[in-house]
Design the sequence.
């Protein structure tokens, strides 16, 4: 089985793929930049125990990372405990043409998402929206060109900032409210963040299509809050919480076929 890992600023996402390209196990953990090789090993082998997967069943590992501090501990962990050299994906290894002022500024996960979208929807114009630490919009033409994108503060990032600055606010768990117009502060924040994000995304998607002069495109949404956003948006075509992991799997296949 192939292990795919997306190391993000907030979460580390693990996906285990079988030989047919299906995600058979999936997990999220908080990103801790202070973790050592052995810390990661303890955490990872507990995860394998939960999945009831033997470490000998892992045949390879491919990683996308935007946290350089964790690259060596992950690499060393796989070499030390599994005798596997993981593949760290860089932009040059992904077959997507990039039109960007400075391609080195783009997180590898965004280009992985672009490639996943190309594989899932060949020959289509794409807008890929990832609700993570930041909400990112990535624009990919039908000609497999990464055109550029937008970056907006993430929903949970915005919520954390509000809770930090407004000391009287209670802790808020995000959920869709019965109505847009709320009758209390907690629901007002929930409605504002989720309905506001859905409306923002729909408006940005329309403006992207206008700027690109596209008559049609496929909007793919990923990230942990994507299903909540679906309830407040009218422009989503596909929700795929495993998009980045699938992109890593497709890149692995491309490199090893």
Sequence:
């Amino acid at each position: 089985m192939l292990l795919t890992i997306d190391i993000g600023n907030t979460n580390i996402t693990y996906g285990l793929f079988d030989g047919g390209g299906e995600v058979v196990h999936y997990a999220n953990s908080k990103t801790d930049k202070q973790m050592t090789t052995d810390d990661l090993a303890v955490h990872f082998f507990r995860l394998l125990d939960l999945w009831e997967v033997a470490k000998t069943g892992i045949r390879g590992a491919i990683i996308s990372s935007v946290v350089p501090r964790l690259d060596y501990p992950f690499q060393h962990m796989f070499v030390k405990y599994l005798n596997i050299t993981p593949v760290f994906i860089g932009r040059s290894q992904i077959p997507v043409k990039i039109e960007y002022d400075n391609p080195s500024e783009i997180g590898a996960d965004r280009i992985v998402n672009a490639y996943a979208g190309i594989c899932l929807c060949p020959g289509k114009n794409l807008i890929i929206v990832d609700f993570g630490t930041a909400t990112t919009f990535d624009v990919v033409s039908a000609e497999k060109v990464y055109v550029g994108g937008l970056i907006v503060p993430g929903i949970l990032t915005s919520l954390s900032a509000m809770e930090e600055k407004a000391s009287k606010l209670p802790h808020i768990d995000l959920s869709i409210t019965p109505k847009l117009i709320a009758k209390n502060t907690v629901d007002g924040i929930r409605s504002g963040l989720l309905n506001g994000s859905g409306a923002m995304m729909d408006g940005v998607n329309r403006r992207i299509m206008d700027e690109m002069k596209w008559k049609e495109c496929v909007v793919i949404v990923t990230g942990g809050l994507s299903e909540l956003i679906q309830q407040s948006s009218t422009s989503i075509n596909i929700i795929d919480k495993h998009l980045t992991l699938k992109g890593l799997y497709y890149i692995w296949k491309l490199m090893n076929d």
The first strand starts at residue 2 and ends at 7.
